[in-house]
Design a protein that fits this description.
The chain is of the alpha+beta class. It contains three helices and nine strands, in the order H-H-E-E-H-E-E-E-E-E-E-E.
């Protein structure tokens, strides 16, 4: 009888140990999924989602840019510079909310502007822009885009700086003759790791003619918003699992 009880006890212990191991594996798997934000490694997932976003939105966004350029051609002629950008940033929402990598696609197109009557030129540029689309990709950025809208100016003053915007995803900057640089927006400190950028130049930069200023029109859309997980931290709530941005591989960008 003692031997039978001993065997039964051993059998019960084996069953209990197996059940405990399964429970540990399930918990470990759940923690891994939470920490990483998914089954795939966060770097692979962030890169893949950015590439998928580009595949989905590059076509419609390119069509929007081409339509804008066609509308502006009778007013400004051909661009003197155009560059496309893909920028990926690390975002820390704070608390226990997992960190994220945001990747955006933008295009900056620069034109020469006749400065004989700059206010009239700027007014015509903005009126033309108001007739063009500026909301492509709003689904990704939670409706941060908007129609092109002129910003208030001081009567009698020569136009300069930011003169129009399209929600948070479009800007128009103008500068008079002799300006060496164009403002492109506020530079923000990074949350998790430095922003990384890849570019594609579609119009090589050239100088405007004598007596001309410049106007830079920039539009941006979101490509991806990827949960890159959370490594619990007593000070930050969530620490990053990535030390640098995970950039997409897109033909033509470097």
């Amino acid at each position: 009888m003692g031997e039978k009880m001993s065997r039964g006890t051993r059998r019960a212990l084996i069953v209990a140990a197996a059940a405990a191991l399964v429970a540990v594996l399930v918990i470990a798997g759940a923690v891994t999924v939470f920490v990483r934000g998914g089954i795939a490694h966060p770097a692979d997932r962030a890169r893949t989602e950015a590439e998928q976003g580009y595949e989905e939105w590059a076509g419609p966004f390119g069509e929007e840019a081409a339509a804008r350029q066609a509308a502006l051609e009778p007013v400004l002629g051909e661009p003197i510079e155009e560059t496309w950008y893909i920028v990926c940033s690390g975002i820390a929402p704070g608390g226990p909310v997992p960190n994220a990598q945001y990747c955006d696609l933008s295009v900056a197109t620069t034109y020469a502007v006749d400065w004989a009557d700059p206010q009239a030129e700027v007014d015509e540029i903005i009126t033309t822009l108001e007739s063009t689309e500026a909301t492509t990709g709003d689904e990704v950025t939670a409706g941060e885009g908007g129609p092109w809208t002129a910003l208030p100016t001081d009567p009698g003053e020569e136009p300069g700086g930011k003169v129009a915007e399209a929600g948070h995803n479009g800007t128009v900057y103008v500068h008079g003759p002799g300006s060496e640089t164009l403002e492109t927006g506020e530079i923000l400190e990074f949350d998790l790791f430095p922003d990384e950028v890849i570019t594609q130049e579609t119009v090589t930069a050239s100088e405007p003619p004598t007596g001309h200023g410049q106007v830079e029109i920039r539009r941006q859309i979101g490509l991806s918003r990827t949960d890159i997980g959370c490594r619990p931290s007593p000070s930050r709530g969530c620490d990053t699992l990535l030390d640098e941005a995970s950039m997409p591989h897109i033909d033509g960008f470097s």
